[in-house]
C-alpha cells in the first residue's frame, strides 16, 4: 500500500460530510469532511505503487475544472481507473452541494 498527500485551493467549507463508493477489486471509496476555508487536503491510500505523478495530474484536472468547497478528502483505492476516480469525486461533490 502506498500513501500520498496532495493539496489544492478551494472555496468556503463544505456544509457536511459525504461518502461515495466502496473499497473492492477495481473500485475506490471517497470520504469528504468539511474543514477550514481555502484548501482541499487529499489523502490517497492505494494498492498500486509508483503512481504519484498520475494521481497528481488526475486530481489537478478534477479540482481545477470547477469550484470545490474546502474539505479533507480521504481516497481509499484498490486499483480504480481514472474514470472511476473522477466519478466518485463528482458523487461526493454532488452530495455536498445537493443537501442543505
TrEMBL record:
Subcellular location(s) per record: Cytoplasm
The protein's UniProt keywords, in alphabetical order, are:
Cytoplasm, Phosphoprotein
- O-(phosphoribosyl dephospho-coenzyme A)serine PTM positions read 25
**Post-translational modification remark:** Covalently binds the prosthetic group of malonate decarboxylase.
Principal location class: cytoplasm
Asked whether the keyword Phosphoprotein is assigned, the reply is yes
A cellular-component GO term for this protein = cytoplasm
Q: Keyword Phosphoprotein on this protein?
A: yes
Q: Which InterPro entries match?
A: Mal_deCO2ase/Cit_lyase_ACP (IPR023439), Malonate_deCO2ase_dsu (IPR009662)
Task: Please report the name of this protein according to its UniProt entry.
Answer: Malonate decarboxylase acyl carrier protein
Organism for this UniProt entry: Pandoraea terrae
Chain's gene name: mdcC
Amino acid at each position: 500500500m502506498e500513501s500520498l498527500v496532495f493539496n489544492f485551493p478551494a472555496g468556503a467549507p463544505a456544509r457536511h460530510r459525504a461518502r461515495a463508493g466502496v473499497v473492492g477489486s477495481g473500485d475506490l471509496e471517497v470520504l469528504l469532511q468539511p474543514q477550514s476555508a481555502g484548501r482541499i487536503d487529499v489523502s490517497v491510500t492505494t494498492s498500486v505503487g509508483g503512481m504519484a505523478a498520475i494521481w497528481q495530474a488526475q486530481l489537478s484536472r478534477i479540482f481545477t475544472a470547477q469550484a470545490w468547497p474546502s474539505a479533507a478528502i480521504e481516497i481509499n483505492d484498490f486499483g480504480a481507473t481514472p474514470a472511476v476516480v473522477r466519478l466518485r469525486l463528482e458523487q461526493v461533490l454532488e452530495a455536498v452541494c445537493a443537501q442543505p
